[in-house]
Amino acid sequence: MDIDFPALSQKVIDMAIAYSPKVLLAILTLFIGFWVIKKIVKIANVGIRTSGMDETLSRFISALINIALKIMLILSVASMFGVNTTSFIAIFSALMVGVGMAMNGMIGHFASGVMLMIFKPFKVGDLVKIGGGGTIGTVDAINAFNTTLKTLDNKRIIIANTKVTDNDITNISGQGEVGVELTYGIAYGNDIDKARKIILDVGRSCPYVFDSPEQTVVVAELGDSSVNLATRPFCNSEHYWDTKFYMQENVKKEFDKNGIGIPYPTMDVNLVKQN
Known about the structure:
Layout: H1 5-50, H2 55-80, H3 85-102, H4 104-119, E1 127-130, E2 135-142, E3 146-150, E4 156-160, H5 161-165, E5 169-171, E6 177-179, E7 182-186, H6 192-205, E8 217-222, E9 227-231, E10 234-236, H7 240-257
């Protein structure tokens, strides 16, 4: 079959002439539209923050506004090329249903993110522990599908929202004031009252520990190789780590000065010689 190249070339040129203005207009619309959306989201962020809304919720709402406006912009650009947006929306919705069924886990993460927004077990800036023996970190962001924690050593941990809601959540700083759980083991031959006085004196010297509620020291356990003394000094939640580290270091120093030993676990081994 012979191809009429001149006619084909002319047709291509005619299509280019016909669609070039639309393509240029679409590109210009996208460029201006994304710029305008950026400005709108920025203004919305300022308005949300000045309204006194929780920072966690404000970030979530801003993200939704951003996504919604971009979808509307893309639909507007599609209509410039004669695309039936009603049919496009129907096809897009059906596609999303199919994708949703294939990505059931992602929907679960999103639903868990919504639950975190509604029930607010923690907010951005709170020190939390996820799971019984899990990760401790400061909440950096609560996103649609995951929650980001920043640890003390500046690591970034991203946890799927379903993992957050399916686990125990300990909000260490949620009350504003927090008790720092500490345990010190001393040898059975040491003076309990002397050790108690040292722990309390260190607590009084700590710049972060409150006078009220008053710090106490109790015998928590008679262990295999030590008498374990427990204390719970209270401080502002943002000083949790400062208080813990101060107490640990200075109690050890004062124990050393006063001859109070922290015993190591020991085991007696008896060897029986057989003839």
